[in-house]
Amino acid sequence: MGLGNLVEKLKLVSFINSNTRRNIEIPAGDSLILRANINLPSGKQPWPVILMAYPYMKDGMMSPLFSIEAHQLTSTGYAVVMVDLPGIGASGGVAKNPFDILDPKILSRVVEWCAAQEFSDGNVGMMGESFGGMAALNAATENPPALKAIFSMMAPINFYPNLVYPGGSLNMLGLFGSWINIMNLIQILPPLNHTNLKNWKEIWQTHLDGFEPFIMEPVDHTLNDPYWKKVNIESDKITVPTYVLDGWNGFSHKDSTELFNQIRGPKKLVMGPWVHMWPSLTDAEPIDYLSIAIRWFDYWLKGIPNGIMEEHPVSVYLLGEEHWRYEENWPPNGLNEIVLNLRSNRTLGKGTEIRDMMLICSHDAAAGAYSGLMSVLTLGIDYPKEQSRDDARSLAFTTSPIPENIEITGEPRVSLTVSTDMPDAAITVRLCDVDGEENSKFITRGWMRLSRRDGLDKVSPVEPGKVYKITIPLMPAAYRLEKLHSLRVCVQLSDFPRIFPLPHTGSISLHFGPDITEELVLPTLKDKPMPTFKPQFKPADTGMLNGLGSPKQEKIWEINDNGKEKCINVKSGLKLSLSVFPGLPDINLTHIYEANSFTDSPEKAALTSNTEMKFHLDGKQYHAKSEQTAEYDNVSIKCTITENEKPIFEKEFKKKMNWFQ
């Protein structure tokens, strides 16, 4: 650890100890009291305010990161307000589902409260990653007068199709295993800092009495019904200047491109190579996102003419070639659609089949494990791996080496003519880049339940043997295919562990013939020149997170592929020890989530998630635990807390699920 980082860490500790006002009450309407930590700059008030709102506990395991953000923002002249959302941490209320606590009217009231404080100059900005970004966007749909700008990272806006039910199938490990179970734990934890909080036990008891896992309500809505349409973020109402930042390897990048196009105010878009995570903490091309946010807020909240609005509106990282580039909009101008046909000899190219025949794609419930996790809690590590093993579990169609560079830019789509011998089929299509050594690299994917072919809001019965024409949209991509590489389209009937396999054995048949079109439609920018100038982002400095008063963590991302038993296990998680951090008890957290699937027995697919935290509080030792198991048709959750090894809380939940029908 260099001297510079040590000095900065000491400054951070001093800042947290002396500048943090904890558990300040914010009236949020209907007798609801939220509580916030407030950090103020040195010097004379008032200042513009940056508001952040999360369900992850302002005084919990994310506190080191939140504190660093607050430290850097206050050092540039911003007051920072970090609020616990309803039913979480020190705030009042009960959190029964993830959408009620994102009420735009509540968030708008918090914005106006920030503007009215004596330390505030009346100008408020909001920023956040994932749920924090959703909070900023939801507040912006109300367009409160004091909200002058927002900075949103990795924030979904349409929750059914890309997150909870991709293509109509239930998200397995990435949402159900990773995020839901850690939220089970967070919902039952007490406030971990009791400054200005004499009634902390009453707040905690209210949370415990009303506790219900976030998954309970959403799994009752297996179609894209009015429930989902009501909770979606209405981004076309936003006129507040908005900076959107996301990554091609997450799950929310389709939402972010749509969000960028729907916002009616000033806007910017950065799309990097990242998974769903703070972009300073990812393994690929980490950047200092706070320096970007500060420039954005300096312009809109302080009126500093720093030139940010004269810069290109879109900055995109092109995968494959691995470089940044500017664009004027997204998708960019000048797109051409290339149409390639899937043919019965497993090739991909120009020209359709001349004879009638079929290819069989069996349901291999282990297909998909190497395509990246697409998780809400990625820890920055679960990027796609080499694809050959998944390709072998699929029906693959490959071009001959392509003689020129091609930029795949936008949303490809694949049209198929299929029949099945099963009650339903969950079809996944992957697009891959194959080099001269037969190494297969993931580009993008899309999903569709055959029974949702007429829309995700309805069930269209599937008749065995009947032929259906379907079109599967793939997630957006920006990818440069190098000349002499090949494109590969892979059709498979599972996307494990992203979605639960359907509990059906059998296959689909792809139909070929002179009057049948099986095709890939590829939006491209043909051999666009490499940029002569490109975005420049400061590299991330994570030194503040290492060593003094910072977490020690072990990140887990494993694939155990046992071909002999035709079983595959995917495991991810985090082990974290947080100690000597100002204002917090020592914390030991273990969060392990894993899924199993069996090639020939899709009904045996199962998910387990075990999350526990040990900590000392007011001289007592606590151990909180959430154990969650799920199969395709049921989920079981057990949450417990002990105090000095004596049980003080236990709740169990069991629920039948019928998403597969």
Specify the helix fraction band.
10-25%
**Residue fraction in strands:** 25-35%
End-to-end separation in angstroms reads 56 Å
| General form | globular
Number of strands: 30
Could you give the order of strands across the largest sheet? 1-2-4-3-5-6-7-8-9-10
Unreliable runs? none
Number of helices: 12
Largest sheet geometry: 10 strands, mixed
Radius of gyration: 25 Å
Mean pLDDT: 93
Question: According to CATH, what is the topology of the domain at 336-526?
Answer: Jelly Rolls
**Class by SSE composition:** alpha+beta
**CATH domain class of the domain at 336-526:** Mainly Beta
Going by CATH, the architecture of the domain at 336-526 would be Sandwich
Give a brief description.
By secondary structure, the protein is an alpha+beta fold. It has twelve helices and 30 strands.
Keywords:
single chain, 661 residues, alpha+beta, Rossmann fold, Jelly Rolls, 9-stranded antiparallel β-sheet, 30 strands, globular
Give a verbal description of the structure.
The protein is of the alpha+beta class. Helix content is 18%, strand content 35%. The chain contains twelve helices and 30 strands. Strand 17 (426-434) and strand 18 form a beta hairpin. Helix 3 crosses helix 4. The protein is globular and about 80 Å long.
